[in-house]
Amino acid sequence: MAKLPDKTITTIFTLQRQLAEGIEVAAAAEWALAEQYGETEATK
User: CA 44, CA 42: separation in Å to the nearest integer?
Assistant: First the structure.
């Protein structure tokens, strides 16, 4: 396997963290909307 430069590895992990944070924000927003409007799996 090729060795990636440290800067590339740092960039990958930075982007991965940003993606995880964005997914967390989206999930929290979905949960808040479901709570506010009473949406459940049964009412979809």
Answer: 6
- Residue 43 structure tokens: 């009412």
- Global pTM reads 0.70
Question: 39, 33 in Cβ contact below 8 A?
Answer: yes
With a CB cutoff of 8 Å and minimum separation 6, the contacts of 33 are 39
pLDDT digits (tens), the chain, 44 positions: 789 999 999 999 999 999 999 999 999 999 898 888 886 667 65
